[in-house]
Amino acid sequence: xxxxxxxxxxxxxxxxxxxxxxxxxxxxxxxxxxxxxxxxxxxxxxxxxxxxxxxxxxxxxxxxxxxxxxxxxxxxxxxxxxxxxxxxxxxxxxxxxxxxxxxxxxxxxxxxxxxxxxxxxxxxxxxxxxxxxxxxxxxxxxxxxxxxxxxxxxxxxxxxxxxxxxxxxxxxxxxxxxxxxxxxxxxxxxxxxxxxxxxxxxxxxxxxxxx
Length: 211
What we know:
DUF2185 domain-containing protein; Imm33_dom; six-stranded antiparallel beta sheet; DUF2314
């Protein structure tokens, strides 16, 4: 089965708050002997439905953004690759390292902090209404997101909602980042302005309907 290296940079552009990309500071520190993780994309789908293997490569040579290394893992699916094979790659292909990266703490936050979202939001890939209640625990931010198209029957069924990482919502619209964890936004409601597309705070929202 043939393969190619996937670009971690391009994946990060599509999902900046859920796909970790080593910072430029970390990439600049990489040297011969360090291990980096690359994404090996197969030309065909594996039996488990996936199409990629993430494997460690030991750096043997470096010239600015160009690297050569040897495969440090034995592939499970890609039979055309073997442990010790030489791999030419660029910094854009590196999706992880073994070096400490302060930026990874931000990614941990986006993954660990949770919000509740209507299934319709995920289907439409948009949200137009959001409420913040008292958080249930240290991981819960207290937010509930709606597409704005849900009817009363839909909203009354808890099975139509799920808990996800806040990073998934930030991938959709990161304008909420400035107030997503602000204590002053507890018991607040926001609605998207159809004209500007901006989220606007709803003054005097009637919270009694949720009692």
